Amino acid sequence: MSSSAEKSGEQEHSFFLNGETISVRAFPMERLLDVLRVELGLTGAKEGCGEGECGSCSVLINGELVNSCLVPVAQVKGTHVTTIEGLAKHESLHPLQEAFLECGGAQCGICTPGMILASVHLLEKHPQPTLEQIKEGLSGNLCRCTGYMQIFEAVRKAAYGESQR
Amino acid sequence: MTERHIIGAAVPRKEGRDKVTGRARYVDDMTLPGMIFGATVRSTIPRGKIKKISFGPGIAWDGFVIASASDIPCKNCIALILEDQPCLANGAVNHPEEPILLLAHADRHLLRKAVDAVSIEYERLPALLAMEESESKKEIIWGEDNVFKTYLIEKGEVDSVWKDAAHIVEGEYRTGAQEQLYIENNGVIAAYDAEAGVTVWGSLQCPYYVHKALMALFGLPAEKVRVIQMETGGAFGGKEEYPSMISAHAALLAKKSGRPVKIIYDRAEDMVATTKRHPSRTRHRTAVDANGKILGGEIEIAMDGGAYATLSSVVLSRGTIHAGGPYYWPHVRVRAKAVATNTPPHGAFRGFGAPQTIFAMERHMDRIARAVGVSPIEIRKRNFLKTGMTTITEQEIREEIDLSGLLDRAVKLSNYDEKRKEFGAVKNGQKKGMGVAAFLHGAGFTGSGERYLNSMVGVEGLADGTVRVLVSSAEFGQGTNTVLCQVAAQELVIPYELVTIAQPDTTVVPNSGPTVASRTAMIVGKLVQSAARGLKQTLIGSGFLQGTYTPEEFRKACKEFVAVRRALKSYSRYEAPPGIYWDDSKYKGEAYSAFAWAVYIAEVAVDPVTYGVSVEDFVALQEIGRVLHPLLAEGQIAGGVAQAIGFALYEKVVWQEGRMANNQMTNYIMPTSVDLPPIRVFFEQNGNVHGAYGAKGIGELPMDGPAPAIVNAVEDAMKIRFDSIPLMPEDIFRATTVRQDA
Amino acid sequence: MKDDPRNYELVSPDSLREAAVLLSDDPGRWVPIAGGTDLMVLYSAGKLTVRNLLNIWGLSELRQFEVTPSVLRIGAGCTYSDLQKHEIVGKEFSMLAKAASWTGGIANQNRGTLGGNIANASPAADSLPALLAYDAVLELYSVRGVRQIPYSEFHLGYKKHALAPDELIRTICLPRNTKGTISYCRKVGTRNAQAISKVCIAGLARIANGVIEEARIGMGSVAPVPVRLQKTEQELLGRNVGPELVEKARRSVGQQIQPIEDIRSTAQYRDAVATNLVEEFVQRLCVEAEQQ
Q: Which residues on B lie below 8 Å from A85 (Cβ)?
């Protein structure tokens, strides 16, 4: 058993974060969201509901979209975790980030990190998505500001190079 | 000097890059050295006296900082309009979740355990949990008669119209509470220092409201209270007045502990304890002639304000003034009241009383149409206000408006006629219908409100030659930062990139008024325009700049001025336009300096298996003066329509003993990306002399129309009348069975 | 976030066998946690009373599919996303794939597992009616060995199930006998995505020459456990499809369900919609029979 020495108490959890190896000391049941925000100072993932409904805590684990408020840190051992902070390489933005800026996809911005990661995940699965696929792919990320219209535009723009205006 | 086209261009959102990279800093992203956490112990009953407070076993209470009403240095109230709402309950509670005690500790988890370990014994008192109970006055829970405020509008001689009426149409319409559901919960960090006083960083709309409230609570002068707005993750009115409460709590704990204190609500607490939209009931009794023209009528409005007055008088005011819709009423009497119940106080939410009364008006227009035997389109055309006519407050419409033309355009854009024909032909399966709502929304504070606000705005030239806008107006997604910088850049004829905007900090920015009432682009924008003009004139007048100049020359002049004169700041204060007349006692006159006008059309389908309503298509057409930024304007309308679709069909607050029982995102349902129709937004621009570059306020407008348009469409589809929202599938089911039984 | 990570123990066995040993050494102490989409919600709300969690996420033995000529064996650790991607699930057990696409949003589908959905035993769970309609058989694993139990016998009452304290759900076995059947499933929720169901149906039938040879109807959110509408199935078996059958089927539903009033909906609504769903199912069969 991997933790035979320590049945309770803090443990070391090693995983890849935005491409770099990392090790964090935390209680195994600490939520990945809190480890990211508090221990690691990566505040891009947000807590909107704490129950996996709003998606503002979304991150990618091994390229799969998950709600980090529902993931105990012990379960990310050895995985590749990507947060919004890992999306842009140096100063140039990811095409989705550019598209969100060009199309008005971010208003108050609180859902935006999660929404962009959900869009990344969506475009990996469906590089040329239909509107239905875009809507389905983002149905786990709540936005209260935009009514989603300009978010769909942004995803279309990133996928097809131009929006439908 | 080239003509710059910044106004009307889709310039990049000022803080957009930070938002898409996750760098934007919201209050919970911030930590201060030595910071501890605060939490609130709240009432579990709707009304009663506090008999005993016990601190349970298993908690090392010595390690906690505990604050109660007795720790409040000056006035135990959240200063807003009246002073009836305590910051902390002092011996008595008047609503569930009323704050009683504050706890602080460095261990966030232990803190939660401690809150649960406090037990309170109450002597229960009878509570009023609904509007009708309050109106019955079987208990008096506020003032002399449970009534926070009343208004009476009388135009013409309404008692004379009934005898000539071909039809007298009556109706009663209800709207429920609605939770703003900003995705970022309320939160604040407060610090206290004997020298510097109180500093607060928060998620908020109105830094100076918080400033005023903290001054009163602590008995501190203005310069000893500092309020800073952090990036704010949505607000919609829900962070207009509530932040004063949570800031007061954090500041009290900061003072008592000597450490910075962070209070962040989780979703459950935010939903159950903070403000919601006022539930309403509006009754119409209207006299119309044989052609459906309104001869006159009576409108009776009641709103549930919750346990304390807070903003109810103003919400009621706006609801009252909008109650007549965009129609001509030769005679009308409007009676309105806001009453107290033992529920958490209701507050500001986009629309602020107008969505409630416009729902009633637009449902009622369809009812009048049916009584008269005329289409919903025709009935409206026969009653629309025209240039030169007066509203129910006898405000003359001076601008050129063509509401019939607007309606015709919406009808065309939505294929209203063709679709209704097609739907009428379908016998089985899904029932489909089309519904219209025509409405107006007055931007800015009512009547003499803007004069009372006395807003001031600054535009500053910096040492590096760039320009900075100084306002207390908050950005929370609607585009404040972007639009105000556009205005300054356009006025100064310099690139948008050379203009920035200061983070709202009461030690840095003047009070440009609260970020509410759809006033920011229009009114504050106009002040930014004049302050920028003042800055330009200062540079030119002092010889640093020629009358015509390039951006490089401007920048150089600005640098030089600051180097020599040390500062370059231009301020502009609000001046009421001349000839504005408003009688606050009779509620007569120029209620708003500008109205935006709109016609919305909804296409709905009702599923015969599930009784669920799906909005299939939505046309939102509005005249808004000037589109300052096409993406932002469109985004505001789309977002508002989505929120209003929630108001109409999904967002039901389930009350149990005065408390929101479904205070989780799992059970309070807002629309997801797969629940909304294509929202097709169209603008007309007829200018506005009172707004920056001709703009009218639009933030709240889109909240007013969708609900009645949708319910009108459902009635068109089902041939059953529904007069209450939210309209749930269960309500439609119940109505169909009643139908079958009848 | 209402609970304290310090109050919980989470152990990660390296194998299924190791997990079973732990359960057997201390039955009742542990609750297995897979994707966490149910348990972590309770935890955040301060309502997770069991303090010792057995981490079975990442046990590859549980996250496998095995296809034999007669059975599709689904590992209990397979996620809803895994289900949607699997070819045989899509071809022969489409209602399960459908249900998997209804459960939460994509982020929850990437983590939620079929085994977790079963063990959590909510009568509103989306995949359970489909499992009933497919006559699923569960394999339960412990140090004492493996035992099989028809899924229809798994739920004993509201949130009570037949798992012994030392047992884990290892596999969900679906008999590959759906060829030539017609399936119909629908979820009625509070909105189109991320919704808890108000009523949920999964129906399967086989028709030959206009006669119903086989009918299996699973339904959720209408009783303390997900149910098979056996009386309705009896009404349909051996009958000719037609409008009179639709009416018979409608009338049979009410006596088999006990829907409740709760924070999301009313008993009368659930009753009416359940009946409408059965009607829609039988009407679907009528259409199919005509086309045959």
A: 21-22
Q: Which of B116, B611, B672 sits opposite C192 (nearest CB)?
A: B672
d(CA C254, CA B612): 21
Cα separations in angstroms, A48 against A56, A111, B195: 6, 8, 36
Cβ contacts of B183 on chain A, cutoff 8 Å: 46, 48, 54, 56, 108, 110-111, 142-144
User: Largest alpha-carbon pair distance within chain A?
Assistant: 61
- The pLDDT tens digits of the residues spanning C17-32 come to 999 999 999 988 999 9
Determine, yes or no, domain membership for B168: no
What is the CATH number for B78?
3.30.365.10
Instruction: Report chain C residues whose CB lies below 8 A from the CB of B612.
Output: 188
Torsion of CA A116, A117, A118, A124, to 10 degrees: 110
* List of E strands, B106-224: 118-124, 147-155, 167-175, 187-193, 197-202
Class of domain C183-291: alpha beta
Q: In this predicted model, what pLDDT tens digit does every residue of B156-211 receive, in sequence order?
A: 999 999 999 999 999 999 999 999 999 999 999 999 999 999 999 999 999 999 99
Orientation of helix B354-372 relative to helix B312-322, angle to 10°: 30
* Distance in angstroms (rounded) separating the CA atoms of residues B446 and A4: 69
How many domains does chain A contain in total?
A: 2
Q: How far apart are CA A48 and CA C100, in angstroms?
A: 25
Residues A111 and A69 in one domain: no
Q: Are residues B257 and B314 located together in one domain of the fold?
A: no
- Is there a contact between B304 and B141 (Cβ–Cβ < 8 Å)? no
Q: Tell if the CB–CB gap between B110 and C196 is shorter than 8 Å.
A: no
Average model confidence (pLDDT) for chain B?
97
CB contact under 8 A, C272 and B266: no
Please give the pLDDT value at position A2.
Answer: 44
B380: closest CA among B405, B417, B415?
Answer: B405
Structural domain including B515 reads: 455-573
Using a 10 angstrom Cβ sphere, with 0-12 exposed, 13-18 middle and 19 or more buried, the burial of residue C69 is exposed
Does some domain include residue A3? Answer: no
CA distance A52 to chain B (A): 9
Contacts of B192 (CB under 8 A, 6+ apart): B198, B199, B251, B254, B255, B258
Look at residue A145 and tell me if it is in a domain. Answer: yes
- pTM score above 0.95: yes
According to DSSP, the β-strands at B499-501 and B467-470 are parallel
Half-sphere exposure at residue B687, Cβ-oriented, CA atoms within 13 angstroms: 4
- The total of structural domains in chain B comes to 3
> What would the two tokens of residue B554 be?
């401007």
Domain extent for A145? 95-160
CA atoms of B120 and B125, how far apart (whole Å)? 15
Evaluate if residue B73 carries a pLDDT over 50.
Answer: yes
Q: What is the pLDDT at residue A1?
A: 42
> Which DSSP state fits B277?
P
Residues A75 and A17 in one domain: yes
d(CA C215, CA C207): 9
Specify whether B79 is located in the same domain as B220. yes
Query: Is A5 part of any domain?
Result: no
Q: Are residues A68 and A16 in the same domain?
A: yes
